[in-house]
UniProtKB/TrEMBL annotation:
The keyword Transcription regulation does not apply. It holds the Pfam family ydhR. It comes from the Bacteria. Signal peptide: none annotated. GO terms for molecular function: monooxygenase activity. It comes from Oceanobacillus zhaokaii. This is Monooxygenase. Keywords: Monooxygenase, Oxidoreductase.
């Protein structure tokens, strides 16, 4: 069963194209994380918020990534991180055309 990791936090930028340029190596490295399937990057410049919606193969790999990512964010001075791991209800997700089973 796949799991969703939802993360958001306050960040003073960059956003948009500048964020894409500065974080492209980070994005590539996330592809190498154990159990990682995909991520949607989120941003809300008007409230200085960023984060993402991740899908991992297992709850354990989602939680392990969250632990590592929280430490990485703390090294950037970001310590107020909102994060939750959710199981995916695959039967309902399938009805609504979700990309994971």
């Amino acid at each position: 069963m796949a799991y969703v990791l939802q993360v958001d936090f306050k960040m003073n930028g960059p956003f948009g194209d500048e964020m894409a340029n500065q974080f492209s190596n980070l994005a590539k490295s996330i592809n190498e994380e154990d159990g990682f399937m995909w991520k949607i990057w989120t941003e809300r410049p008007e409230t200085n918020e960023a984060g993402g919606i991740y899908i991992f193969e297992t709850k354990e790999t989602a939680e392990n990534y969250l632990d590592m990512h929280s430490k990485r964010l703390a090294s950037f001075g970001i310590t107020d991180v909102n994060a939750k791991v959710f199981a995916i209800n695959s039967k309902l997700t399938d009805i609504t055309n979700g990309p994971v089973k």
